[in-house]
Amino acid sequence: MTHEQLTYLLLGAVGTLELSVLTFIAGGLAGLGMALARISPVRGVRVAAAAWIQVVQGTPLLVLMGLCFYGPNIIGIGSVPALVAAALAMTIYSSAFLGEIWRGCIQSVHKSQWEAAECIGLTRWQRMAKVVLPQALRIATPPTVGFMVQIIKNTSIASLVIGFAELSYNAKVLNNSTFQPFIYFGCAALLYFAMCYPLSRWSRTLERKLNATRG
Amino acid sequence: MKYQFDFSSVLAQWPLLLEGAWVTIQLSFLATVAGFVLGALCALGRGSRHGWLRRLVGVYVEGIRNTPLLIQAYFLIFGLSSVGVTMPILAGAVLALVINIGAYTCEIIRAGIESIHKGQLEAADCLGMSKLQVFWHVILRPAVERVYPSLTSQFVLLMLASSIMSSIGAEELFGIANRIQSDTFRNFEIFLVLWAIYLALSYMMRLGFWLLGQIVFTRRRKLGTPL
């Protein structure tokens, strides 16, 4: 593998990281909204959020990518940059999964904490922001870090429909011109592994640490 | 600009779409069954007395779980064909899916096995059950029963992920849709139709797993009670 080829592969890895970070920020916000909507006091909001999660979780990411890539044209926005379309699809995808993970975490905060917060006369938002969410954050950290691995891995299919140049796309381009699949896909796999494995380990360490100290 | 939806040219291809959905079902079924067997064996291997076997399974599980399915499929299929091993595309797709899902199934079943109380094993020993009987009745079945919901979700995700196999040329639902796309150019409509079909497939699959659960796990007990 020449120097240029390695650079090209690393450039792809940068694309992967870009899309991952963007997804994590936007998907995180959407996921938080979804989690709060799932436990909303308004029944309509709860049902709508549950339906959204059900539908997104039953859809392949590739189909979401297609809808987000061709959709903007339909509603008259015109074509959007590949990165935006890919990030939008990944955000929708993450909103459903993170929303469900975080709802579980919020609801696993002990009921007496909710009641105590109510007793000292906090409003619903104060209760959430000052009592429940800080505790839920502890519980939510390990699975959230674990989900970051899913995000990084899932960016690999952004090139299939949308044509966003990330790691797997660049590896395929290199393979198409040289036909040395073991080298290029092997290197790509190693780069993905280098991004994902530390997160996986971290998630597991957090799980042990936070579990041990949880009252 | 007002977009004119036109589903007629897409829906005219319904026999093709049906065929694609059938291939997706077959792919998912084979990968689910074989992946479950592989995962159960690996879960057993991870608890083995032999250190080398534990490490080998560990490398497999971590390697697969920390790399994307797409790269695994490329590596496997294009790699094998570069050294002269060719196989039918669908066989390659099933192989890639099985190797992928095996690692996830292994971790899920292992979590189930770890939740089994040691006293159960001692009791089985006292009853004089054979090793195979212990594994089947005391370890595997209760473990799978406990993690059944997670397994179901993972297998539904597998079915959805089988769409990625279109990138190695498999003519499953997504692959067929690609073909229709290049014939009709009704991109958005095709993705809407695909969306509906995949949703229907995932609900059918959940229903199937629920029914299977009703048949296999006949003991009536509340979830979360000790086994």
From TrEMBL, chain A:
Transmembrane segments: 6-35, 47-67, 73-93, 151-169, 181-200
Alphabetized CDD domains for the sequence: TM_PBP2
GO MF, any single term: transmembrane transporter activity
InterPro entries documented for this protein: AA_ABC_transptr_permease_3TM, ArtM/GltK/GlnP/TcyL/YhdX-like, MetI-like, MetI-like_sf
Annotated GO biological process: amino acid transport
Main location: membrane
Pfam families (UniProt xref): BPD_transp_1
Keyword Transmembrane helix: yes
Membrane topology: Multi-pass membrane protein
Localization per record: Cell inner membrane; Cell membrane
Keyword Transmembrane applies: yes
SUPFAM superfamilies per record: MetI-like
Domain ABC transmembrane type-1: 13-203
Similarity-based family: Belongs to the binding-protein-dependent transport system permease family. HisMQ subfamily.
PANTHER family: BLR6398 PROTEIN, MEMBRANE COMPONENT OF AMINO ACID ABC TRANSPORTER
Protein name (database record): Amino acid ABC transporter permease
Source species: Rhodoferax sediminis
UniProtKB/TrEMBL annotation, chain B:
Keywords, alphabetical: Cell membrane, Membrane, Transmembrane, Transmembrane helix, Transport
Lipid bilayer topology: Multi-pass membrane protein
GO molecular function: transmembrane transporter activity
Residues of the ABC transmembrane type-1 domain: 21-209
Localization annotation: Cell inner membrane; Cell membrane
UniProt-listed PANTHER family: ABC TRANSPORTER PERMEASE PROTEIN (PTHR30614:SF35), MEMBRANE COMPONENT OF AMINO ACID ABC TRANSPORTER (PTHR30614)
Family named by the database record: Belongs to the binding-protein-dependent transport system permease family. HisMQ subfamily.
NCBIfam families attached to this UniProt entry: HEQRo_perm_3TM
Protein name in UniProt: Amino acid ABC transporter permease
Species this chain originates from: Rhodoferax sediminis
Lineage start: Bacteria, Pseudomonadati, Pseudomonadota, Betaproteobacteria, Burkholderiales
